[in-house]
Amino acid sequence: MMDSIALAKALELQSIAREEQWRRNEDLFYLDYARDPLPLFHWLGRMFAGLRDRKRSMKKADRLETSRSACNSNDGCAQAASSRI
Fold first, then answer.
1. Could you give the number of structural domains in the chain?
2. In a domain, 83, yes or no
3. Which of the four pLDDT bands, split at 50, 70 and 90, describes residue 16?
4. Is 46:53 a contact under the CB 8 Å cutoff?
5. pLDDT of 31-59, one tens digit each?
6. Residue 71 forms part of a structural domain
7. pLDDT value for 13
């Protein structure tokens, strides 16, 4: 019983000392509690980004050509040619 009380007191003193270090240097707190993301989340993020980029590139490749002509006929007209210049 005395051993567990002594261990609890030692842990409490260690915790207090660490909190004092955190008060002096805030970066230590973030270094102690920062963790790398789980590999599954990292993989999912890469897959999502890759699929999004692939969809964007396919959308641009499948885009139909639209004419910007101001004329209604298929043959060119001076107004449309002059507006493109």
1. 1
2. no
3. very high
4. no
5. 888 877 788 888 999 999 999 988 888 77
6. no
7. 96
What domain range is 46 assigned to?
Answer: 2-60
What does the alpha-carbon distance between residue 12 and residue 1 come to, in Å, rounded to a whole number? 17
H runs (alpha helix) in 1-85: 2-24, 26-33, 39-61, 78-84
Amino acid identity for residue 83 in this structure: S
Residue 73 lies in a domain: no
Task: Tokens for 83, please give them.
Answer: 């507006």
Tell me the whole-structure pTM to 2 decimals: 0.36
Count the neighbouring beta carbons within 10 Å of the beta carbon of residue 22: 16
Residue 26 belongs to a domain: yes
